[in-house]
Amino acid sequence: MHVYVDIEMLLYKVMYRTLNNSLLDTDAQRLLSAVADIDAWVLTMQNHITNKFTGDHSFYYAMSSKPYFRSILYPEYKAHRPPAPELLHLIKNAFESKYCTSIYKINGLEADDVLSIMSREHNYMPIIISGDKDMKQIPGIHSNLDVQEFVCVTSKESKITLARQILTGDSTDNVPGLHGIGDVKAMKIINEALKANMPLWPAILAAYALHGKSSKDAELTAHLVYLLQESPEERWTISMLSI
Hints:
The chain is of the alpha/beta class. The chain folds into two domains: 2-153, Rossmann fold; 155-241, DNA polymerase, domain 1 (Orthogonal Bundle). Helix content is 47%, strand content 9%. It contains nine helices and six strands; from the N terminus they run βααβααβαβββαααα. The chain has helices at 7-19, 27-52, 69-73, 86-98, 111-119, 155-168, 183-195, 200-210, 215-225; strands at 2-6, 58-62, 103-104, 127-129, 140-143, 151-153. It has a six-stranded mixed sheet. The longest helix is centred in the N-terminal third of the chain and has 26 residues, at 27-52.
């Protein structure tokens, strides 16, 4: 089986854990500690996968490459975030050097887009390892970074995830959605549409209209939250919500 890992989130978690370790005084010590932490996680993750699933396994690690196309499309995208500490760049460089044959990057794409594209290259269910619930736009077998529990996400469920994201937006990435609409209210809108055999896009547009927003607002959010499936040039279309 092919196992696709959103390694960026792990690198961030390790970086902050290392920076908060008062026993580490220098950047050299912090880097050595971070690299050891990451290596231990990789080994544990691979052991969990091989014990859970029979057969041969190939592991691939997706990483980001700036400038992101979303920042060009919408300059406010992630613009509220402070610059990353220098330690993160050191950790990334060390990881890339050690795992270079298993790393995939595409210019202008974030790790989740790279992972989404990679995972669709074969006609069988991939294993997705990520701490980001929005990765469930990708059909496959999903697990968090602790690699303890696995959940199967169907094609229908992946499209429902996309619809939910268009309604809620993503405050973490500065992506606008509908004010006051969280996951629960978004799922209510989606479930009502499905129950009435109504396509999801008209239901989303109706919700946007109720909040005084236009179809262009909905389309912008859709472009920002949609994970690419085929190529860096691909963009969101209404057909992506067809169930």
